[in-house]
């Protein structure tokens, strides 16, 4: 069941984020913005070569994206208004600031979505695949940071109306649904 915080509907679904319907989707990328596997591979495949071309421009301009930060490209041939590429932390045992870096991924992505006047945004479960971040902790960090952001309305007149966590795996979808309930 979705919850509503400050007029923003926050929900969880299971599926492929490239098939989601809304304004902007978030990609779990790498610091060089080189298309990879997992959700990154799915987004580049679905959007076509234009996304990689725009990633190359960002790389040339600013040398890439640091963990916790985010950058925007178009969505190529997908119908989204844009893709927000963020770089999650690689899990190194938990003492290298991984939770804070992961929280930054969510808040910096939300800042960019607001700057682009997005009304809706979908997040994958950043860092919980190839980057090996423990799923339960990642879920808590994701929901804490997004809900705190919406509660504080970091940008006056927040344009966002809908935030969805699109979980590829059943266990993550169940975990997010159960954890979301605890915030209502
Ligand atoms: N839609 C939604 N979620 C998906 C999809 C999809 N189509 N495909 C996979 N996931 P990962 P990371 C889930 O590995 O851990 C790439 O090579 C997946 O089940 O994609 O942040 C990048 O280039 C998992 O729950 O991202 C980086 O090098 C979640 O997305 C590196 O992987 C994240 O898994 C980033 O690793």
Explain this structure to me?
This protein is of the alpha/beta class and 184 residues long. The protein has one domain: 3-Layer(aba) Sandwich (Leucine Aminopeptidase, subunit E, domain 1), CATH 3.40.220. It is 39% helix and 20% strand. It has five helices and seven strands; from the N terminus they run E-E-E-H-H-E-E-H-E-H-E-H. A seven-stranded mixed β-sheet has the order 1-2-7-6-3-5-4, sandwiched between helices. Helix 3 crosses helix 4 and helix 4 crosses helix 5. The longest helix is centred in the middle third of the chain and has 18 residues. The protein is globular and about 45 Å long. The structure holds ligand AR6. The site of ligand AR6 has 25 residues, from strand 3 and helix 1.
Attribute tags:
184 residues, single chain, 5 helices, seven-stranded mixed beta sheet, 7 strands, alpha/beta, binds ligand AR6, Leucine Aminopeptidase, subunit E, domain 1
Structural topology:
Elements: E1 3-5, E2 8-14, E3 24-29, H1 38-47, H2 49-62, E4 70-73, E5 82-87, H3 98-115, E6 120-123, H4 135-152, E7 162-167, H5 170-181
Parallel strand pairs: 2-7, 3-5, 3-6, 6-7
Antiparallel strand pairs: 1-2, 4-5
Residues 16-18, 28-30, 36-40, 42, 88, 124-131, 166, 168-169, 172 line the site of ligand AR6.
């Amino acid at each position: 069941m979705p919850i509503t915080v400050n007029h923003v509907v926050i929900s969880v679904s299971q599926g492929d984020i490239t098939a989601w319907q809304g304004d902007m989707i978030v990609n779990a990328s790498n610091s060089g913005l080189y298309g990879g596997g997992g959700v990154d591979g799915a987004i580049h495949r679905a959007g076509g070569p234009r996304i990689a071309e725009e990633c190359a421009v960002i790389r040339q301009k600013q040398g890439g994206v640091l963990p916790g930060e985010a950058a925007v490209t178009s969505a190529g041939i997908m119908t989204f208004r844009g893709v927000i590429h963020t770089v999650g932390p690689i899990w190194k045992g938990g003492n290298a600031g991984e939770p804070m870096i992961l929280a930054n991924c969510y808040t910096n992505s939300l800042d960019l979505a607001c700057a682009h006047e997005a009304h809706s945004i979908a997040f994958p479960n950043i860092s919980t695949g190839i980057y090996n971040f423990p799923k339960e902790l990642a879920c808590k960090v994701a929901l804490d940071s997004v809900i705190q952001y919406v509660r504080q309305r970091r940008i006056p007149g927040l344009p966002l109306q809908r935030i969805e966590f699109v979980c590829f795996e059943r266990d993550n979808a169940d975990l997010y649904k159960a954890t979301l309930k605890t915030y209502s």
